[in-house]
Structures
1.
Amino acid sequence: QVQLVESGGGLVKPGGSLRLSCAASGFTFSDYYMTWIRQAPGKGLEWVSSIGSSGSPIYYADSVKGRFTISRDNSKNLVYLQMNSLGVGDTGVYFCARALEAWEFWGQGTRVSVSS
Amino acid sequence: SYVLTQPPSVSVAPGKTATVTCGGGDIEGKGVHWYQQRPGQAPILVIYYDTDRPSGIPARFSGSNSGNTATLTISRVEAGDEADYYCQVWDSRGAHPVFGGGTKLTVL
């Protein structure tokens, strides 16, 4: 069965960096777009970034462009989100999901807290 | 950027029908997807491309899309349907997905 497991979240100071990982299993990873979606505490869902099956194309939300970098390693079935220059507005749960939209499969999320 | 508008809340009695709307300019021309999210859980896709249901989603969930409004309909509402519901489309101009603000469904 399809499984997506995020990791790498934690507490970081403003201006700091984190790298999130999403380990995929149960499907042919290299056939699918992968996407990161986040949710601030008590708020709605916000799309963050997507990456094509072979590493391109790549899309970013305006709110993270220039600060976040999405990448993938198809040999390891992993997708990453490198997050730099973090601000309090980046606090929330980060989910990875399979596909470019109409996400049928999601991970359980990893929590990122940006606070001094 | 394309904007999707949802009512913040909808209330319905058990056994009745709930409708959650999602408004957007000429949304009829886009494929609309709907997600259910219970507190503390990851979202679940309940409707994709306006009307299709993923396997495992009860037939009580249905969708429609016409003009400037897409609608998620939940028939014979159960207590377990209480959740936040989000609509989502692909914004072709911005080349990215867009979510509605979400609707909290309360089962009375």
2.
Amino acid sequence: GAVVSQHPSRVICKSGTSVKIECRSLDFQATTMFWYRQFPKQSLMLMATSNEGSKATYEQGVEKDKFLINHASLTLSTLTVTSAHPEDSSFYICSAALVGGPYNEQFFGPGTRLTVL
Amino acid sequence: KQEVTQIPAALSVPEGENLVLNCSFTDSAIYNLQWFRQDPGKGLTSLLLIQSSQREQTSGRLNASLDKSSGRSTLYIAASQPGDSATYLCAVVFSGGYNKLIFGAGTRLAVHP
């Protein structure tokens, strides 16, 4: 149980285009999802916290107009990188919090590798 | 500032050794601590979750301990195998952190035959 999927797993796009990444909790409902960014050989940096039915909360330094997050249902959150540039190339990982139980454990998706040419 | 630090950054050992990976955090007021494994180019696999009220958790050859007062956690890997080669990440949810995981930089482990 507690499986999180991401789609696509890998995307290559031209500079200036927008890219949408989906994060789904497959067998549980997640009122809260998190989006992380990881540069090569570095750790994960939290970008934003996504709550179902409300606006996302962005971490300091993360441009909310650049990284649009929508959490339309209890099983789906999307991250849209708008007008992508080469510096946006990175590994994006989402997680979903298993709420309702005694421990709010997060389960992570497999990640999406974004390459902007 | 709430931070998580992992030592060592990299470790290379022969197969069969028992290993200790270290994690330290700056604020003893934590909600929980998790150890993850990440293979190259992949997502995270949760290994162990320790709640603030617990001292340790065990799963197979893995044992994680938590000492809140000193701000430390250790991940013990018994009888290491080449398949254990990966990056191990420690992450903390600090009290009042609203489920936000703060990650350490990780320890890159290589176990050679």
3.
Amino acid sequence: AQSVTQPDIHITVSEGASLELRCNYSYGATPYLFWYVQSPGQGLQLLLKYFSGDTLVQGIKGFEAEFKRSQSSFNLRKPSVHWSDAAEYFCAVGLGGGNKLTFGTGTQLKVEL
Amino acid sequence: GAGVSQSPSNKVTEKGKDVELRCDPISGHTALYWYRQSLGQGLEFLIYFQGNSAPDKSGLPSDRFSAERTGGSVSTLTIQRTQQEDSAVYLCASSPTPQETQYFGPGTRLLVL
């Protein structure tokens, strides 16, 4: 069965520092790949997605992610974190005709001022 | 334009009672998904609709859970004889077609006492 791994449950960074959140997936083919962000009490907001083509994708709020087929990874990056980026981040893969999403367990990001 | 809306935003019920959760997708979106977010299980897929049909119900945890969609629009998730383990946030998402990005609603927080 397919799976998504986010190895870091919690990450703390200082405001202005760079950020990388890790995501690895296990699936026989290249799935659709997504990063969503969830602020407390809110739904999920799409940051970016990869379907095909250029392996470096740009998203909203200054985030980017790079798809690496050889490593089955889709890590999320941001050059300079803002305090408002504190939230929980979910990596997800979409599979099959219905594109149902399988989510990782999430990474909780704390930003220190 | 309007996003995905869900009602109620919060629901408290007693064990054994039935509950109905409603989802209004983005207008024109043919695909609709239900997910559940709980502390123990993370984010899990429940069911997917294409139009009014549900080609994938594989995530429904028991026969106490059912869902329907009418007019290719509104969907209702029904939980019969609720149990405490049903306590979770129930998220609805919609997409223009199954192969496109899913947009999430704010969720319904269900508490079973």
